[in-house]
What we know:
By secondary structure, the protein is α/β, with parallel strands linked by helices. It is 41% helix and 14% strand.
Amino acid sequence: MGARPPGMPLVAANWKMNPTNIDDALDLVRGVMSVARGQADKVDVAIFPPFPYLVPVSDLMVESGVKLGAQDTFWEMSGAYTGEVSPAMLKPLCQWVIVGHSERRLHLGETDEMVAKKTAAVLSCEMSVIMCVGELIDHYDAGTSDTIVSSQVKAGLASCSADDSARLVIAYEPVWAIGTGRSADPEHAYKTLRLIRKIVGEMIGAGAARKVRILYGGSVKADNVQEYVELPLCDGVLVGGASLDAEEFAHIVKVTAEVYGHR
Ligand code: PGA
């Protein structure tokens, strides 16, 4: 269970509700494409812009090798769900969806059950999913991180099977490290990534679990990315704030490619 999955590492850019205009978004995409071009055989790069930018970004990125994803989706494919967007609608535009981000759990009241339904819906459309898990600062301080993360993983993957493994990514993002500048110490990150891999193995089988990529996220920056991607069980990073600066993001992609190139 110690080995890294056979797939390439993944560097995923979660833009959240940024940038606030399409021109800046397209400039950022151009920057990302120029970085990713030289690294396409070493690292998967995926960007997750806000919904209104998906169409123009997808047009601009044709044949760039950069993957495109949405930051959320609903679990039904169509119907009377005002304001929602289904995986079936996203599929022609993008290959990936993030579900269960802690900001959605916190501000929108998303539960483990909703996250599980979204995960299953994305996979049923043969798209790839990044399911986010992570403990709050109170859990961390109380030493209950493992219990919380375990229950989130078990609930979120409730209806997943070995067949989903190559399209399944789990991002461990301690909530207290997101957007705070306070990143988790690599030892804590390592222990949690190992726990997640073990649980996934119990749920879908150890062989299939090796294909599931497990990322670290939370205040990843150019100057600390190496500490995380060097962890033996880390298959890449989910980057928020630092992904909005093309130069800083370029550095994160290059460091990841270098570290994995030496494994
Ligand atoms: P951050 O965000 O890198 O700004 O901490 C990470 C995330 O929320 O995915």
